[in-house]
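for the recovery benchmark. tokens below, seq after
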């Protein structure tokens, strides 16, 4: 059984779907294939991962690597496949407003997030990615900028989700 996250509910999944739709010509055929395979829809990535751990799913699609169990947390027989030709990369972002009341504290927090100790701690709980991920030739970085706001428009989002995606996935 296949599983995907409902892009009408989960914002990260919606971001991935919207970027897939403009970057990859075969995206809509893939969505239609998930519909044909009667893929199960889940409200969040956590729900999807819970179904995987329960043995209800065989294939997941558009799951952030940071949500997947890495190393000792991997389920027996589970393999993460990061295609060499096409992988979307969503940056992790930390904002530090210029007018923050505790700018010194914000800078300290940012330095802590970037420290080797934090990297090790984050890695222990699964916030890392496979070593071969960094060398992917087909890595498609999603740049933060005003162009991402286009898909946040209520009419565009509604048309994209209701008129196209749901018809293909749900039928």
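predicted aa per position
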């Amino acid at each position: 059984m296949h599983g995907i996250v409902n892009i009408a509910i989960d914002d990260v999944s919606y971001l991935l779907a919207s970027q897939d739709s403009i970057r990859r010509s075969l995206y809509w055929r893939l969505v239609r294939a998930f519909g044909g395979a009667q893929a199960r829809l889940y409200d969040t990535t956590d729900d999807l991962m819970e179904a995987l751990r329960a043995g209800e799913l065989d294939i997941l699609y558009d799951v952030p690597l940071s949500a997947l169990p890495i190393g000792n947390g991997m389920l027996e027989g589970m393999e993460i496949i990061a295609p060499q030709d096409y992988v979307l990369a969503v940056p992790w972002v930390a904002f530090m407003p210029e007018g923050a009341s505790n700018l010194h504290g914000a800078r300290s927090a940012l330095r802590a997030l970037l420290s080797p100790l934090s990297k090790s701690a984050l890695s222990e709980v699964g916030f890392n990615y496979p070593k071969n991920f960094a060398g992917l030739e087909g890595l498609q970085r999603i740049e933060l900028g005003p162009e991402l706001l286009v898909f946040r428009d209520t009419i565009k989002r509604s048309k994209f989700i209701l008129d196209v995606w749901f018809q293909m996935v749900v039928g």
